[in-house]
Write a structure and sequence with these properties.
The protein is built from four helices and 13 strands. The protein has 211 residues and is of the alpha+beta class. The longest helix has 11 residues.
Length: 211
């Protein structure tokens, strides 16, 4: 079910709230309904754009101030009408696999509005296929596809959760994995709690995070 989206209106982004330990990854993978995406160590950011205007917001319904090039974000727009993209702004001076600081990057992991339609009731599988169509495969880093100089989209996988977790969490900029039900349908993001039932997160242990 698509609902017309003709002007800027804030939508709370889908995000995981429930945490699982590493030991549960295999159990979730065996269910065959979850897709894993890398969880990056940045700040949640949504890009609202109609091709001319770009508005960046955080997950707390506040304007997100970033050093991203607005013209580069504007080029993410495709089709006609509004788009709303959910992603991670890398702004915490985290190191990549080359041990270099990886800042002022935007990594897309979901799309909520396309061609002026709020994609309500669409599944995550359907929205991820749309993202792949809009931003074709171009692997450059671990589980990331490059769109432009500073814009990327995450890869999604159905198998090998534990191996991927071990691989990416060797590097500072990756926190772990987010597991999303492929058949999970998008709810209207009118509160922060919408869309938390269809995804969980698995983070590496650090001094800041504990299960």
């Amino acid at each position: 079910m698509n609902t017309k989206y003709n002007r800027f209106k804030y939508i709370y982004p889908p995000r995981p709230e429930n945490k699982i330990p590493f030991s549960s990854l295999e159990k979730f993978e065996k269910q065959g309904i979850f897709i894993a995406q890398p969880k990056l160590n940045g700040s949640s950011m949504q890009v609202y754009t109609n091709g001319n205007l770009v508005i960046t917001m955080n997950r707390h319904k506040r304007v997100m101030i970033s050093k991203m090039d607005i013209d580069e974000l504007k080029k993410l727009h495709q089709g006609k009408g509004w788009m709303v993209l959910c992603g991670e702004l890398m702004n915490k001076s985290q190191k990549d696999e080359d041990n270099k600081t990886w800042n002022h990057k935007f990594i897309i992991f979901d799309i909520l509005v396309y061609k002026g339609n709020h994609l309500l009731k669409s599944t995550f599988d359907e929205r991820y296929e749309l993202l792949k169509e809009l931003y074709p495969a171009n692997p450059v880093k671990k589980q990331l596809h490059q769109i432009s100089k500073n814009c990327f989209r995450v890869n999604s996988v159905r198998f090998g959760f534990a191996n991927i977790f071990h691989d990416i969490t060797n590097y500072q900029m990756y926190e772990g994995l987010v597991l999303k039900r492929g058949d999970g349908k998008l709810e209207n993001g009118i509160t922060e709690k919408n869309n938390i039932r269809t995804q969980v997160k698995c983070r590496k242990s650090t001094k800041n995070y504990a299960f």
